[in-house]
Design a protein that fits this description.
Elements (H helix, E strand, L loop, with lengths): L13 H6 L13 E5 L4 H12 L3 E6 L2 H13 L4 E5 L5 H15 L4 E4 L14 H29 L3 E6 L6 E2 L2 H21 L4 E8 L2 E2 L1 H4 L3 H7 L9 E2 H12 L10 E4 L9 E2 L5 H8 L5
Helix pairs in contact: 2-9, 4-5, 5-6
Length: 294
């Protein structure tokens, strides 16, 4: 009996990810080690599948071992290499131990993809201090932990490395101000350390998705799906696979002369569009009606 990860409507299943066509060379990451946080679901899981299919040794990190084990088992069934590491990226000692162990056991790491994160839709005026701090601690501080810890290992081993952080395209994204603030900080941090770490041979970039069909997307009502799909000039939602392709392009050999950049993979939503995560307020509904046909 198959134990493949079940998929909600529109979400790529393990079987989908195993056969999804890729624009990247089949051996692009052969014998490289790729560490992916948030690898048990969503963009992280898709990135793990793609990296493994491109020849990488994949290290799946996340807070829920059950999800990681499911993904690792699905990869193993088709002969792909993966190991799991239960990890809370907010805990610096645990992050340091992870990278020290990987460098000792595997001889190093080549690429780190920061996909872990979380948020909840709510008007900023209603955020509790606890809610604000929880999102900032994961999305910003946790990402920094992964970045600095891996960079120190690369520096001490005198070897090159690459980091890609999954953030958000903030324009038109509303009612998740905590996440937008944290992700904007990651983008600014990326620009700063890309300069500082260039002498060490470390590249640092971001990928900023727009509305993406994933497990989180599937939790929203159908009317939200319909509206999100219209929230960019291309008038469709993206897939986790499209983000994975962008992350492994910019983070891998194809992006060897790219650092300190944010690649928007969002159907143009950073130029036009609006995404209301908790529903569009009447004030703005009335403004939109001004553009309707009389």
């Amino acid at each position: 009996m198959s134990t493949a990860q079940p998929a909600a409507p529109g979400v790529l299943s393990d079987e989908d990810l195993a056969r999804q066509p890729s624009s990247l060379a089949a051996d692009l990451l052969r014998d490289r080690t790729v560490v992916i946080s948030g690898a048990g679901s969503g963009i992280g899981r898709a990135t793990a599948w793609l990296a493994a299919r491109l020849g990488a040794r994949v290290v799946l990190c996340g807070r829920t071992q059950e999800k990681l084990a499911r993904t690792a088992a699905a990869l193993g069934r088709v002969g792909l290499r993966a190991q799991t590491a239960e990890l809370d990226i907010r805990k610096r000692d645990a992050v340091d131990a992870l990278f020290a162990g990987l460098f000792e056991r595997l001889g190093g790491v080549d690429l780190v993809v920061n996909s872990a994160g979380g948020q909840f839709p709510q008007a900023a005026i209603d955020f509790s201090e606890k809610g604000w701090r929880a999102v900032l601690d994961t999305n910003l501080n946790g990402t920094f932990n992964m970045m600095q810890s891996s960079a120190r290992q690369w520096r001490d081993a005198a070897r090159a490395g690459s980091i890609v952080s999954i953030i958000v395209s903030p324009r038109g994204l509303h009612q998740v101000a905590h996440s937008a603030a944290a992700r904007a900080a990651v983008a600014a941090l990326t620009e700063s350390v890309a300069v500082e770490w260039a002498p060490l041979g470390i590249r640092v970039n971001c990928v900023a998705p727009g509305a993406i069909i994933s497990e989180g997307w599937a939790a929203y009502p159908e009317d939200i799906h319909r509206r999100y799909a219209q929230a960019c000039p291309m008038r469709r939602a993206g897939s986790a696979w499209e983000i994975a392709e962008a992350a492994l392009f910019i983070g891998g050999p194809g992006g060897s002369f790219i650092t300190g950049q944010t690649l928007h993979v969002n159907g143009g939503s950073n130029l036009w569009g609006e995404t209301w995560t908790a529903g569009k307020p009447a004030w703005f509904v009335e403004a939109s009606r001004a553009w309707q046909e009389p």
